[in-house]
Amino acid sequence: MTSTTSGNRxxxxxxxxxxxxxxxxxxxxxxxxxxxxADGMDVAIMGFVAPSIIHDWAISRPEFGLVMxxxxxxxxxxxxxxxPASDRIGRKWVLITSVFLFGVFTIATAFAQSPFSxxxxxxxxxxxxxxxxxxSTTLLSEYAPQRKRALLITVMFTGFNLGSALIGFAAGWLIxxxxxxx
Length: 182
Prior knowledge:
Layout: E1 2-5, E2 8-11, H1 12-17, H2 23-57, H3 61-89, H4 91-109, H5 115-143, H6 146-178
Antiparallel strand pairs: 1-2
Helix pairs in contact: 2-3, 2-5, 2-6, 3-4, 3-5, 4-5
């Protein structure tokens, strides 16, 4: 990719590759890491809250299956639409929008009153997260210098395991005291 300013051509990839990692790039690594951490939390959380919800709503495990499958379906939908949308309107805007939607619908899930409403909110959360994951990876790849790209992406993806582990600790401590909505 090249850009022209005042008649001079700049090779943007070469420009990035020749410099040390800037504070802006480190910020991007941290933000992408947090997005992947949220994904890890989201994937693991239902395993911890499902027994409480099933008990509170007096429903069977098969009835709760719709809720359990909603987020992964949303992930697929979000991932399929994220690429073309990012190419049209920009990766940053799609990423910001998807993280916002994921956050709003995840918080709203705590107020769900039925399996159907929870499934709908989990589906929408999944769409947001499904759009965020590929965009965060691509955005970090574009901004990272070639010599550090693999390391930075690996660091980003360790957030998934951290998120899964953290939610286990948090759920084990919070759910018995405050219930599943917390």
